[in-house]
Design goal:
The protein is mainly β. The chain folds into 2 domains: about 70-170, Ubiquitin-like (UB roll) (Roll); about 205-425. Helix content is about 10%, strand content about 40%. The chain has helices at about 1-15, 55-60, 100-105, 115-130, 335-340; strands at about 75, 85-95, 95-100, 115, 135-145, 160-170, 205-225, 235-255, 260-275, 295-310, 310-320, 355-365, 370-375, 385-390, 400-405, 410-425. The strands form 2 sheets. The protein has a 10-stranded antiparallel barrel with strand order 7-8-9-10-11-12-13-14-15-16. Strands 1, 2, 3, 4, 5 and 6 form a 6-stranded mixed beta sheet that branches. Strand 15 and strand 16 form a beta hairpin. The radius of gyration is 49 Å and the shape is rod-shaped.
Length: about 425
């Protein structure tokens, strides 16, 4: 009893006087009845004890499955009946409504007009004619609260308008594989010589043009000479390793007509260098070494005229500049030392010139498949060298083109790789 009185004193101190409740009634002695407090202001009235049941019921009801609206089309009707009064047409696939104006335009049904089973059969035939469906299943539904117009009340079999639903299975669309189109080759030049054309699609339009060209002379396939003191008069499979990286800028000043050739003036800058010599057992790797002894910068200015005749493009022109130093870098038989020792030429004889006339002709078998040749004559150079480059590697099923260098007393057949990139105009 002392502990109970202490707890009651603490409760009275915490609760205001207005909200204090009477102490619990004392229990009869010797009883085993459960102890219970009297009602307090914090207890909810007994009349509201069942009120939370309604929200709980609503919560349970909200989790119940809800019918999908797309499937609630109306009262099903037989598709062999009719006529009906048409209201609308829907297309469904996989339980979802889909739509396409091209499909809807094939249907005969019109709003608030008669629609028969014959119309439905005609619509099915029209939809199958589109060849986009694997399967079409039609259904007719009566729409509640949508009465038919009075003028059709005695004709229509249904008192309400109908909804026609086509359940379709669309054929999978197979995307065609992309077709790789090889871009056409540049017609602004062949191998080392330019033409009066520029770019790809603008080749006959006056204006500026810019190309980048890369050529690599791999080596000598076969060579023959008649130098009296040469140690060997036949040579084959000798490496040259000569790089020619050039930029070609031009201006076409005259377009081509039926009788008039196209004309252009331009300039070329060429970086020429030899790569490392043929590797040996002691030096098995190949490296490119560029220094003042192996690198030269060549340049020239040119004028060229070009004319097309029956698909063959002919060009002729002349170059002035250090391009004339090219020949002696393609074979050792045109160097001053070899001509002195093997040909008994005067000391200091050099196969160089500043005037190089040229001509070329080529034909495009396909837009990316040119065949042709070019001729460069190094006029006035010792040994009278002539370089003929032939763009025929693809025709011969080779991965390189051919060059023929002729000079007094011999010739060399060369293998080369070349690529011309048109920078401007780029299409």
């Amino acid at each position: 009893m002392v502990l109970t009185a202490a707890l009651w004193a603490l409760l009275c101190a915490a609760v205001p006087a207005s909200s204090q409740v009477p102490p619990p009634a004392p229990q009869p002695p010797g009883g085993n009845q459960p102890f219970a407090f009297a009602p307090t202001p914090f207890d909810a009235p007994s009349s509201t004890s069942s009120a939370p049941a309604a929200p709980a019921a609503a919560a349970v009801a909200s989790t119940a499955p809800v019918a999908v609206l797309a499937q609630d089309f109306g009262q099903p009707l037989s598709i062999s009946g009719g006529p009906w009064v048409f209201s609308e047409a829907l297309f469904t696939s996989g339980g979802k409504i889909i739509s396409d104006y091209a499909w809807r335009d094939k249907l005969r049904g019109l709003k608030d007009q008669l629609y028969s089973s014959a119309d439905l059969s005609a619509d099915l035939a029209a939809l199958r004619g589109l060849k986009v469906f694997d399967r079409i299943t039609p259904s007719v539904y009566a729409i509640a609260n949508s009465p038919v117009p009075t003028k059709f009340a005695s004709v229509a079999v249904s008192t309400t308008e109908v909804r026609v639903v086509f359940e379709v299975a669309i054929k999978p669309v197979v995307k065609p594989k992309p077709i790789l189109v090889t871009p056409p080759v540049a017609v602004s030049g062949l191998i080392l010589t330019p033409t009066a054309y520029r770019g790809l699609g603008h080749y006959n339009t006056p204006g500026l043009g810019l190309d980048f060209n890369a050529a690599y002379y791999i080596g000598r396939l076969y060579g023959k000479n008649s130098y009296p003191y040469a140690p060997m008069h036949t040579n084959y499979l000798d490496r040259i390793g000569l790089w020619l990286l050039s930029a070609d800028g031009k201006m076409q000043i005259q377009s081509e007509t039926e009788w008039r050739p196209a004309m252009a003036v331009g300039t070329q800058g060429i970086l020429m260098f030899h790569d490392a010599p043929q590797p040996t057992v002691n030096t098995p790797t190949v490296q490119t070494t560029i220094n003042q002894q192996t690198m030269q910068v060549l340049g020239d200015a040119y004028v060229v005229a070009s004319k097309e005749n029956h698909g063959v493009r002919y060009s002729a022109g002349i170059m002035e500049g250090t391009i004339g130093d090219l020949a002696e870098n393609l074979t050792e038989f045109l160097t001053p030392q070899d001509m002195q020792f093997y040909k008994n030429a005067p000391a200091g004889t050099m196969s160089q010139t500043r005037t190089v006339p040229f001509m070329s002709m080529f034909y495009l078998v396909k837009p990316d498949y040119p065949i042709g040749f070019e001729v460069m004559k190094f006029s006035g150079a010792s040994g009278s060298p002539t370089l003929i480059n032939m763009k025929i590697g693809r025709a011969l099923k080779l991965n390189f083109d051919l060059g023929l260098l002729t000079f007094q007393g011999g010739y060399d057949l060369l293998g080369l790789i070349q690529f011309r990139f048109n920078e401007f105009p780029n299409r």
